[in-house]
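Budget justification aside, the reviewers requested a transparent look at the raw inputs and outputs of the sequence design task funded under Objective 1. We therefore reproduce one unedited record. The lines immediately below are the structure tokens for a 522-residue chain.
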């Protein structure tokens, strides 16, 4: 597929757990699963014989206590779910998941949330151990890494006190695999991926007798594409959702893929450039003294007004008009007027990320433009790597592998594909830009009681927040749905706003209210 293929992060294979092929089984013996000193593991299932490829592993079942909230016990189930071919009945692949369920809860009233990351090609470790699971990777307050080795602890912001949680890795991510290499393409596409995850949800609800539970789905980045698409498909097939959570969303790719002839995407990116310049204090004093919210409002108005009009005019602008708009653009995004002129008013992300702090020989991040790194080539017009990607990859990989094996008792020697490496070419059926907005609109039309929450980071250059807002503002939904069912919030953080301590606390407060409002009033 085209350049969309790894929206969240670049598809490079991250080394996770050494070794291949041995032991796809789960639930090791007590000696092999000796808990960490701070572990709350109560018991583990006995070790099964390793399953052959395409067969289902026995789950590892462990028991824990949630602390830091109203204390209660919960069970973790770590396993593979087979995804079978509807026609042949053969297993085409298996999805790895970790499910956390509150002990003794009534499944008819206890909410359940299915949660996944994006990519395509990203495992769900980020939302699992960075945001919503009962354990969280220990990071610095701003989301950067402390010195290695890395570890984890209790998560004060887990969603488990409100809902049971199922974290799943789509086929080609984490430990999830197609049963044969030839079956991989059956999962690697917009429709294929969505249908396999829908099948996972159906099987999970059936096996665990959760059909009457209030249901939520949550995704990040391409995971929001999947979630929005799922909302319509699940509703079409008798699985109505109470709520959909989208973190750093991309629903209509056209609105965030700048190119000649697609000026609306340049408009969508512009406020993110300005917010980045504001954060790094590259603006004039009168702009710099504004609050984050007031500056954002000012640049949003400019982007959708004067800037959009200027791009529409193109060469029809007079010399005086062009000179004036160049000066305003440069003033808002903290770069020189010559740079804006040479860019023909259309600012490219790679060039901006190297130009903004060139005098300091620094490049800014894509996932989080607050983060910077040394620019090896002072003349570069593109970043050599994403400093925000490099920061998180090193900590989450070892922690996930340690946690799954030692605390959850799941033994799998396969490579855990954390960011790319496990999927092939991604297929989109659309002739131009993928767009799942119609699926979300259909879900609201058939189920107007569904709620939607969308979180956006000001410093997210992967899914720029103003492009997200533009998409939401152009959805076709009933007015009362827009007024009371669609909720948004903005965060002074990047793509993964949850790794920032202040933003995560705010996000958790938002979601507590969102989940409560989305539940049926009994």
């Amino acid at each position: 597929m085209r350049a969309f293929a790894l929206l969240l992060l670049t598809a490079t294979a991250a080394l996770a757990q050494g070794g291949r092929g041995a032991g796809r089984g789960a639930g090791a013996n007590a000696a092999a699963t000796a808990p960490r000193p701070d572990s709350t593991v109560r018991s583990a299932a006995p070790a099964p014989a390793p399953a052959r490829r395409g067969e289902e592993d026995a789950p590892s079942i462990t028991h824990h206590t949630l602390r830091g909230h109203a204390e209660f016990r919960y069970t973790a189930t770590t396993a593979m779910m087979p995804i079978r071919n509807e026609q042949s009945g053969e297993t085409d692949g298996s999805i790895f998941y970790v499910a956390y369920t509150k002990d003794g809860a009534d499944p008819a009233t206890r909410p359940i949330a299915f949660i996944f990351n994006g990519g395509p090609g990203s495992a769900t470790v980020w939302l699992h151990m960075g945001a919503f699971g009962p354990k969280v990777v220990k990071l610095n307050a701003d989301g950067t890494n402390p010195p290695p080795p890395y570890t984890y602890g209790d998560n004060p912001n887990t969603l488990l006190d409100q809902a049971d949680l199922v974290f799943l890795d789509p086929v080609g991510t984490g430990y999830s695999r197609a049963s044969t290499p030839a079956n991989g393409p059956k999962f690697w596409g917009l429709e294929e991926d969505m249908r396999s995850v829908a099948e996972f949800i159906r099987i999970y609800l059936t096996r665990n007798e959760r059909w009457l539970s209030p249901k939520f789905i949550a995704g990040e980045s391409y995971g929001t594409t999947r979630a929005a698409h799922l909302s319509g498909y699940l509703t079409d097939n008798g699985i109505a959702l109470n709520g959909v959570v989208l973190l750093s969303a991309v629903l209509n790719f056209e609105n965030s893929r700048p190119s000649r002839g697609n000026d609306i995407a340049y408009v969508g990116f512009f406020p993110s450039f300005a917010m980045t310049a504001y954060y790094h204090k590259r603006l004039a004093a009168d702009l710099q003294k504004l609050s984050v919210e007031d500056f954002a409002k000012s640049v949003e108005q400019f982007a959708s007004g004067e800037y959009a009009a200027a791009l529409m005019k193109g060469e029809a602008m007079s010399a005086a008009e062009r000179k004036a708009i160049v000066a305003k653009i440069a003033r808002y995004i903290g770069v020189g007027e010559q740079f804006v002129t040479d860019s023909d008013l259309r600012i490219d992300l790679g060039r901006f990320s190297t130009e903004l702090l060139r005098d300091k020989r620094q490049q800014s991040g894509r996932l989080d433009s607050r983060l910077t790194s040394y620019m090896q080539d002072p003349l570069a017009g593109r970043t050599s790597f994403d400093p925000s990607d490099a920061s998180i990859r090193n900590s989450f990989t070892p922690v996930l592998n340690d946690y799954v094996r030692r605390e959850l008792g799941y033994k799998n020697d396969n490579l855990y594909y954390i960011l790319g490496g496990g999927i092939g070419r991604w297929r989109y059926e659309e002739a131009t830009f993928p767009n799942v907005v119609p699926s979300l609109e259909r879900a609201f039309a058939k189920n107007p009681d569904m709620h939607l929450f969308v979180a956006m980071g000001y410093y997210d250059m992967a899914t720029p927040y103003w492009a997200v807002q533009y998409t939401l503002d152009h959805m076709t939904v009933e007015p009362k749905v827009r007024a009371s069912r669609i909720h948004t919030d903005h965060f002074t953080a990047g793509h993964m706003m949850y790794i920032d301590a202040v933003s995560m606390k705010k996000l958790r407060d938002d979601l507590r209210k969102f989940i409560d409002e989305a539940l049926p009033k009994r």
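The CA atoms of residues 354 and 363 lie 5 Å apart. Residues 292-313 form the longest helix (22 residues). Computational costs for records of this kind are itemized in the attached budget.
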